[in-house]
Amino acid sequence: MADLILSPDDGQLVWLGGLGIQFKLDGTNTEGAFSVVEHPLEPGAFAAPHTHSREDEFSYVLEGTVGVKLGNQEFLVTRGSYIVKPRGLPHAFWNPGPEPARLLEIIAPAGFERYFVQLASLINKNVPPDEEAIEKLSNEYGLTYHMEQVPSLIAKHGLRAPGSS
């Protein structure tokens, strides 16, 4: 029965710069239907604009304020808000405030949660990230980044580059 209850500290936590991923449920817990992660976000941290070809994501703001770009529209959402990010819709999210923020995210179907661990192993080294390896990994998971949008988001919202500490 211990597997049926998760404490707030349960689950591996990896960091991609100021964006954390704490694994709560993976596909082995849900017969592949979905996975659940929490995203702690340090002030100024963000997930670069990207599009999933295989997964739908549903986020719930647990604390703080979160900026979200869905397609070409931008929103500020606060604690208690839901964010729907269907596959095929380019999106990004960030912490625009001075306080930490945290999202609970359901990813369906499961499997994409493994991407985060593999990406962390590529970028959390004391060397410049291997862009070719990151692109190969993203392709394996059906993920497309829209890096051309990053400079304007950083400038507009005072964010840190993805993956920076």
Name the average pLDDT: 92
- How do the SSEs run, as a string of H and E? EEHEEEEEEEEHHEH
Fraction of residues in helices? 10-25%
Q: Looking at the structure, what is the overall shape?
A: globular
What is the CATH topology classification name?
Answer: Jelly Rolls
Distance between the termini: 38 Å
- Indicate how many domains the architecture comprises: 1
Protein structure class: alpha+beta
CATH level-four homologous superfamily name = Jelly Rolls
- Total strands: the figure is 11
Strand content: 35-45%
- Integer-rounded radius of gyration: 15 Å
CATH C-level category: Mainly Beta
User: Any low-confidence stretches, pLDDT <50, length ≥5?
Assistant: none
Total helices: the number is: 4
The main sheet comes to:
6 strands, antiparallel
| CATH architecture grouping | Sandwich
Order of strands in the sheet with most strands: 1-2-3-10-5-8
